[in-house]
Specification:
The protein is mostly helical and about 160 residues long. The chain folds into 2 domains: about 1-40, no CATH class; about 50-160, Orthogonal Bundle (Actin-binding Protein, T-fimbrin, domain 1). It has 9 helices and 2 strands. Strands 1-2 form a two-stranded antiparallel sheet. β1 and β2 form a beta hairpin. The longest helix has 18 residues, at about 105-120. One of its GO terms (cellular component) is actin cytoskeleton.
Length: about 160
């Protein structure tokens, strides 16, 4: 549709489907348009920004950090702030110390430490996000759901 509309009007707001010479690699638009995402194809749901902002403000309040409301995945992807949040709720809750190395080396280890610590505190796997959701900055809605469960159970974890 985008190609036909572009031929008809001379412009299109949608990227075109392109392929390499062998037809083996398809992309939507040129490499410049990779920021364009089709949520309905990727299975992404509508985000509840009010809940997300509420969770981010809670994190900022507990940790005294400045997590960005415009791009929270960028602030949280290395896992250090999440580990700090868990330590503020209960200083004995982390299974391993926080890895302070640069994010390239420590991100997945810190996020896995956070998730494993929540499992140890009684969370079930269905309530938790995947490590790749945060490290690869994929899906903040799943991360937000886990943080909502954490906020609801913060008092129980303090006793743990």
């Amino acid at each position: 549709m985008a190609v036909g509309w572009k031929k008809f009007t001379g412009k299109s707001q949608y990227p075109e489907l392109t392929a390499n010479d062998q037809g083996s690699a398809f992309t939507y638009g040129s490499k410049r348009d990779r920021g364009f995402r089709m949520g309905w194809i990727q299975g992404k749901k509508k985000r509840n920004t009010d809940e997300e902002i509420e969770i981010i403000n809670w994190i900022n309040h507990i940790t005294s950090e400045k997590v960005s409301t415009s791009d929270p995945l960028e602030s949280l992807h290395d896992g250090k702030i999440l580990c700090k949040l868990l330590l503020r709720i209960n200083p004995n809750s982390l299974l391993k110390p926080v890895n302070q190395k640069p994010p390239l080396f420590s991100a997945s280890e810190n996020v896995k430490n956070f998730i494993d610590s929540l499992l140890n505190a009684g969370f079930i796997e269905v309530e938790l996000f995947e490590v790749t959701d945060l490290v690869e900055k994929r899906d903040f809605s799943r991360v937000c759901k886990t943080l909502q469960f954490l906020r609801e159970r913060a008092e129980d974890i303090q006793k743990f």
